[in-house]
Amino acid sequence: MPQPAPDDRAVRPVRLGLGANAAQFALLVAVNALVGGMVGQQQTVLPLLAEEEFGLVGYTFIFTYVTAFGVTKAAANYVAGTWSDRYGRKPVLVAGWLLAIPVPLLLIWAPSWGWVIAANVLLGLNQGLTWSTTVIMKIDLVGPRQRGLAMGLNEAAGYGAVAVTSLAAGYLAAEHGLRPAPFLLGLAYTALALGLSTLAVRETREHARAEAVEHTPRPDGRHDHLHGRLSSGEVFAQTSYREPALSSASQAGLVNNLNFGLSWGLFPLLFAGAGLRVDQIGLLFALYPGVWGVGQLVTGALSDRVGRKHLVTAGMLTQAGALVVVALGDSFAVWAVGTVLLGAGTAMVYPTLLAVVGDVAHPGWRGRAVGIYRVWRDLGYAVGAVLGGVVADLWSLRAAVWVAAAISLVSAVGVAVRMYETHHRQDLSVE
């Protein structure tokens, strides 16, 4: 009796590497650009909406939407990491996009500020589930050799889209009003991303399993105790405070997003207080994630060549200097320099920290480690919003920027003292 033809998908070997998985990698880059665009649709507009349409006063109250976003995104990151290890990456990605559907509608129809906060809770869940999953899936696909490049491409797409959409939303708001035009972008992004994630994206968990089989320990034995099966509690401890590189990455990530969260709620108000137009504010806010996004195309790959630690340290120092420029500035030109420098410093840090986590975490618990790192990193949104609001209410908007500059300096010193170099090119044999 003739035997049925084998299913090519069942016998096709799993291959690691950017070239071997170019089509799926490119698709995930496009999906992550749409993830970033969901944030960009509102960044320029919401602080102005709070004052002009809802009559809110007090910076701490206005920043509640950033706090809601940061806390829920942090929680969703943990869920994304845990579920992606347990159930697979793709179901988590699709679930994240389903949660995005009501977000632009709530922002368009909001009769009160509570609706805006509810929209940002859903947006935080969407961002945590989708962005974490695209990060994990790209790390799965490329293997250890090109981790920095993969993270640079991923984060460049996401934050480049934040910049482009922030700029587009600012111009739409200037031409057509604060609502509904800027948020129609979010409706289009959600529909496209949900279709791509459901119909075209493929599961990548088998790639992680293949890497685990061929995993090569470090010659110095530093990670030998991390190669076994770790419980979720053990992964949390290693990533949060016990393992020097992972915990250093977690604190630097938190401070990095503290700066982003503070700038999200504070910069538009600082710039508007100096008499800048809405379109100028949109351009300034686009420069920060724009340089951040494009810069990662260079810095991610650079970390594969020169290592991770010094790039992270230099990036945190650059962010501290950029915030000093913003705090001292009082014109469009000076603030443009500050936001460009802030974007450059963030570009040095953002993909490199994700590569650090990928270097240290074993493929068997990588999803959870990425999720926990992103919990700490994205709590920075909430910390930055609360800290910025309290300091601005007690003293001034500029004082809040000075505080963030000091915290960034302390973070850089912490990385320089505690983090070791995690990238060892000579150990990488999987392509």
Q: At the third CATH level, what is the topology name? A: Growth Hormone, Chain: A
What would you say the CATH architecture is?
Up-down Bundle
Largest sheet: none
- As for the number of domains, it is 1
Q: Give the full name of the CATH homologous superfamily.
A: MFS general substrate transporter like domains
On the 0 to 100 scale, the average pLDDT is: 86
Strand content: under 5%
Indicate the radius of gyration in whole angstroms.
Answer: 21 Å
Helix fraction?
over 70%
The number of distinct helices, counting runs of at least 4 residues, comes to 18
User: Which secondary-structure class do the elements indicate?
Assistant: mainly alpha
Shape: globular
Whole-Å distance between the termini? 40 Å
Q: Which CATH class applies here?
A: Mainly Alpha
* Strand elements, count: 0
Transmembrane segments: 18-39, 59-80, 92-109, 115-136, 156-174, 180-201, 254-275, 281-299, 311-329, 335-358, 379-395, 401-420
Domain Major facilitator superfamily (MFS) profile: 245-431
Protein name: MFS transporter
Membrane topology: Multi-pass membrane protein
How would you describe this protein?
The chain is mainly α. It has a single domain, classed as Growth Hormone, Chain: A. It contains 18 helices and no strands. Helix 7 packs antiparallel against helix 8 (113-142) and helix 13 runs parallel beside helix 17 (366-394). The two termini are 40 Å apart. 58% of the residues are buried. The model is unreliable at 1-11 and 426-431 (pLDDT under 50).
